[in-house]
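Table S2 (text version). Query chain:
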Amino acid sequence: MKNLPPRPPPCIRCWFAVGLIAVAVVASFVYLGIDYRALGSAESLRLMGKFIAEFFPPDVSPDFLAKVGNGALQTLAVSALGTVLAAVAGAVLALPASGRAGWLPRHAARFVLNFLRSVPELVWAALMVLAAGIGPFAGALALSLHTTGVLGRLFAEALENAPREPEHALTLSGAGPVAAFSYASLPIVLPQWVAYTLYRWEMNIRMAAVLGFVGGGGLGQLLYFHLSIFQQQQAMTVLIAMFVLVTLVDFASARLRRGLGPAYA
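Corresponding structure-token output:
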């Protein structure tokens, strides 16, 4: 019989970390005081079942479907415009954030990026509604501000990890800094930048559907309106439209990002 390798000693740190997490979870439930017996009672289940049944059948009248289709196009436009604006602004801020302009611009740009992404989209949307009014433009601005912080940081990290030798070689050959960057470093990081932008677009299409709850337009605003007046069947149609739109965008974005496979190498 072969000698088996010695059994590794138990991971004390691992068990200690698991124990701390378990204690934190239990303490959170106790602190929140959630009454699970009332949640799972027969009366609660009956009321939940009645509430869910009110969403069926969805409203598929031609007039309402046309309204939902217009909301879906508005949501798609908000997500696309917000992502494009964020990609442009993120690329501009990524250059100093990657350390190409010195120590002070690097930290200043990173501070701006950290601030932009630390504020959630819903908070930006509430602020933009006050600044630009209720509608899709406020939603697009809110998405672009938050996404600029995210994409700018990702773009900067991609630039930091890209080899600088090709750019230095062009500079030594007499090329200017803009030409050296455009013909050496940019082609290296561009596929990764595009992949990051497409992935954020997937996330923004979901968030654009939610921003309507604070006045950002699109399907979210339509859903909030019909839920607020207890028109659950119309709300169900909007929810189905959200699911279809997100699924189509996810599929299209995944196919496009799959074609950029070398960007992840």
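Notes on Table S2: The first helix runs from residue 12 to 32. The mean pLDDT is 83.
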